[in-house]
Design brief:
The protein has about 230 residues and is α+β, with helices and mostly antiparallel strands. It has helices at about 45-50, 65-75, 75-80, 95-110, 125-130, 170-185, 205-210; strands at about 5, 35, 40-45, 50-60, 85-90, 115-120, 145-150, 155-160, 185, 200, 220, 225. The protein starts with a strand and ends with a strand. The strands form 3 sheets. A 5-stranded mixed sheet has the order 6-5-4-7-8. Strands 9-10-12-11 form a 4-stranded antiparallel sheet. It is about 30% helix and about 20% strand. Bound molecules: benzoic acid. Benzoic acid binds near residues 64, 65, 162 and 163.
């Protein structure tokens, strides 16, 4: 398997000057790619199939923060499975290095990665997704998270500095919100969690709301109506 091949031909990250990374935005199609990974060659869109995905980058292998993150994502697998989400990690080191690191992750975190970790030594996927932030680090990726829906649209993008471990519970929380608000005409308020009241979107009239939200609602302002989370 060759190293990462992308459908957009971008120059190597080392030839930094003149590199044009795609500027991805919410609603864009997540760029497809094929690459080596710890579970064998991966074609990103095909791998996600009809479900959701998260793609998240790690600066490099055998680094302490990433070790804790990968163990935690492995521990969360049942939660991702419940939501039909496949996790895909990415680090710039080769597959053999990823595999060696997995043993340390198992030993120190109690969980070895149970999802593919892409090997991206030439930064093709990293450049495709804007994971290289040269003013922050010339060589290694920052920590990004992309949530991709079943239509392969990007629904969430978060970028963290290298020295801050991500909050994957927050990623799950956003996925819960996205899946709920795709299914019902609601939005989720600040710090919302599963089971808590949600907001009826302003475009729904009170008349329509009577049929859609039989449990009723509380009007704090005409534009702020709270209702129990729809099932
Ligand atoms: C880490 O994953 O631990 C890490 C990576 C790059 C810089 C600092 C920390």
């Amino acid at each position: 398997m060759p190293s990462a091949h992308t459908s957009h031909c971008l120059p190597d990250a080392h030839a930094r000057k003149g590199v044009h990374q795609l500027t991805l935005r919410l609603g864009d199609t997540a760029p497809d790619f094929t690459a080596d990974s710890t579970t064998g060659p991966i074609a990103f869109h095909e791998y996600l199939g009809d479900g959701w995905g998260i793609l998240f980058s790690h600066p490099r292998d055998f680094t302490p923060v990433c070790t804790t993150e990968l163990g935690y994502v492995a521990r969360l697998k049942p939660e991702f499975d419940k939501r039909h989400v496949k996790a895909v990690g990415l680090s710039i080191d080769p597959v053999e290095s990823h595999k060696g690191w997995a043993k340390d992750i198992q030993e120190t975190q109690g969980h070895a990665p149970n999802f593919p970790i892409v090997a991206d030594p030439d930064r093709k996927v990293a450049n495709l997704y804007g994971m290289m932030h040269p003013a922050h680090d010339e060589v290694f990726t920052v920590r990004t998270v992309f949530v991709v829906d079943p239509k392969k649209k990007i629904r969430l993008m978060i970028t963290y500095p290298q020295t801050t471990g991500r909050n994957f519970d927050e990623i799950l929380r956003v996925i819960d919100s996205l899946q709920l608000t795709d299914a019902h005409r609601v939005a989720t308020p600040v710090n919302w969690k599963q089971g808590e009241d949600v907001i009826i979107v302003p475009a729904v009239t009170d008349e329509e709301a009577k049929a859609k939200f039989p449990g009723g609602w509380k009007t704090l302002k005409p534009y702020l109506r709270l209702t129990p989370q729809p099932k």
